[in-house]
Design goal:
heterodimer, A: 339 residues, alpha/beta, 7-stranded mixed beta sheet, 5-stranded mixed beta sheet, 13 helices, 14 strands, 41% helix, B: 213 residues, 4-stranded parallel beta sheet, two-stranded antiparallel sheet, 7 helices, 34% helix, 14% strand, globular
């Protein structure tokens, strides 16, 4: 059973306050976003270590690059939807290309803003930043991963993007857990299928695994908090050990965690039943984060159903054709026949 | 910091002359694996920030100057902007912050040559009244002849022009100054001279240098 924790954003704010209280070079830069970033208390406590720039996200990134080049340890905290889109060219050039160690903190990422609509959703940020050289991308799952992430990047020499949600989050890590950037965290062990999830979808994947265990299906759950550099070894190991993979992310199904894992597996050799769960290429329905998760199958029931379908198909394929031809070969044969 | 990164060749030449690296390295400009790329990068000694995409330098310079203010350090920050790049809205965002944080340790030099790649700035996307715009954004503005090095030195040695305000040097320049067939001709914004044009330009510049000596 998992205990409900606090919003990861609040844990970020507390952790950065701890660090900044003991290190005068730590600086938070905001875009009229201290309220949404849970940074009001930080700003009141350390007024000399917060820089407000108003509603100007490209300016936030550019000025943060300048502050970093002068030795400041900058956490640039702005809604993920804006800073990774409006400020994208500044992230690409002023931060990543120029190798200025700015810590970009994407506030209320994914569909955290729910019914505020597509303008306020960031379902593109993994894809956009994965295509930019020289920036680490981290989406912590729970309070533990958030705290460890912020501590780990306190003294980074290179750019980092951290993506945080604002919902109160079930704690997926128990006592004694460890955290390393670039190393997947094993949340639950299993032999039949692996869920590789990130951010606020990890607790959902864990709940799905608990449901499936009731049906005798044992699932591995990995928190792939670091989207880049990806823990490729953990992805290959999951394929080898469990034979089927479902990736789960609060992101477009294009260009995110799922495609990153697919690329690893396709190039590694063995092909296993594989499904990317995320947000499809369609006009978004309106709803809260939870409603949107449910609608798109990012729910314990939805993921359990996807798992059964994936394993059922694989089971069927194994029994109807002992050679187990790849799905695309069958599809190509059908297309040729009908042409 | 040079925000108008497309003038990298001038920056590289000055840095070589100032001893940041051997002058022979300039011959690798634009060559395979050379650090001397068409726009400046930190891999060239003396360059502190990669530039080239327009409208980026001012915000970064504001960050550098703000860090000095926060830490009580005495260094000053200079950035060179083209006038064409003032079309980019990011400059005006950065200007708001420069005034708000009273960055009188920041000097922004605008190379007001009046030309951008398509033609005169006032035909492409008019900037005037430019000095008034900068004043309205909170700068202390000094206008001068940007081809007059003494005027520039005088300006740089008298900052801050006004305590608590960022400094703006609006440098009226002639693009291609000193080479008769290049001066104020739009196509020379980005053009490689033929051997003959190169020889003519060298001749004119050498004549001018002889007069200086």
């Amino acid at each position: 059973m998992t205990e409900l924790g606090r919003p990861n954003l609040e844990v970020f704010a507390d952790t950065v306050l701890e660090l900044a209280s003991q290190d005068r070079d730590v600086l938070v830069v905001t875009s009229d976003s201290r309220g949404s970033g849970k940074l009001t208390h930080y700003g009141e406590t350390l007024p000399d270590q917060i820089v407000e720039l108003g509603i100007a996200e490209q300016n936030v990134v550019g000025i943060s690059a300048g502050l970093a080049s002068a030795g400041k340890k900058v956490f640039a905290a702005s809604p993920a939807c804006f800073i990774t889109a409006r400020g994208f060219e500044q992230i690409k050039n002023d931060v990543a290309y120029s190798d200025q160690p700015v810590r970009i903190v994407g506030i209320s990422a994914g569909v955290s803003y729910g019914a505020l609509g597509t303008t306020h959703h960031s379902l593109h940020d993994f894809a956009a930043l994965r295509a930019v050289n020289n920036i680490t991308i981290i989406a912590p799952a729970d309070n533990f991963e958030t705290r460890e992430t912020i501590r780990a990047i306190h003294n980074t020499d290179h750019p980092v993007y951290v993506r945080l949600g604002k919902a109160a989050i079930p704690q997926v890590h128990g006592a004694g857990s460890t955290f390393t950037i670039g190393k997947a965290a094993l949340i639950r062990e299993g032999r039949d299928l692996s869920f590789i999830a990130c951010g606020e979808t990890v607790p959902v994947a864990l709940a799905a695994a608990e449901l499936l265990a009731g049906q005798g299906i044992e699932c591995r759950v990995l928190s792939m908090h670091t989207i880049r550099p990806l823990d490729e070894q953990a992805v290959r190991q999951a394929a080898r050990d469990t034979g089927a993979i479902i990736t789960v992310e609060e992101h477009s199904i294009f260009g995110g965690l799922g495609e990153a894992c697919a690329a690893v597996l396709m190039q590694a050799g063995p092909v296993v039943p594989f499904k990317i769960v995320g947000f499809p290429d369609e006009h978004m329905v309106n709803g809260s984060q939870k409603e949107l998760f449910n609608h798109y199958g990012i729910s314990p029931d939805g993921l359990a159903a996807t798992a059964c379908q994936l394993l059922g198909n694989a089971h069927q394929a194994a029994h109807t054709d002992t050679k187990q031809p790849l799905a695309w070969i069958s599809a190509a044969a059908e297309m040729t026949a009908s042409a | 910091m040079q925000s108008k990164g497309h003038s990298a060749e001038v920056l590289y030449t000055v840095l070589a002359d100032r001893g940041f690296f051997p002058k022979e390295e300039l011959d690798t400009l634009g060559k395979f694996r050379s650090h001397f790329i068409g726009h400046p990068t930190r891999s060239v000694p003396g360059v502190e920030q990669n530039t080239g995409a327009l409208g980026h330098g001012l915000a970064v310079a504001v960050g550098m100057a703000l860090a000095a203010k926060l830490d009580g350090r005495s260094y000053r920050v200079y950035t060179l902007l083209g006038d064409g790049e003032l079309d980019e809205g990011s400059n005006w965002e950065a200007s708001l912050a420069a005034a708000h944080y009273k960055l009188d340790n920041l000097t922004v030099i605008v190379d007001r040559n009046g030309l951008q790649i398509t033609g005169p700035t006032e035909n492409v996307n008019p900037l005037e009244p430019l000095a008034d715009k900068f004043r309205a954004f909170g700068y202390a503005v000094r206008e001068l002849d940007g081809n007059d090095t003494q005027a520039l030195m005088d300006a740089f040695s008298s900052t801050p022009f006004e305590a608590g305000k960022p400094n703006l040097v609006l440098a009226h320049t002639v693009k291609g100054k000193g080479v008769s067939f290049i001066e104020n001709v739009v196509k020379w914004h980005h053009r490689v001279p033929t051997d003959e044009e190169y020889a003519s330009a060298r001749y004119e510049l050498n004549q001018a240098r002889a007069q200086l000596n």
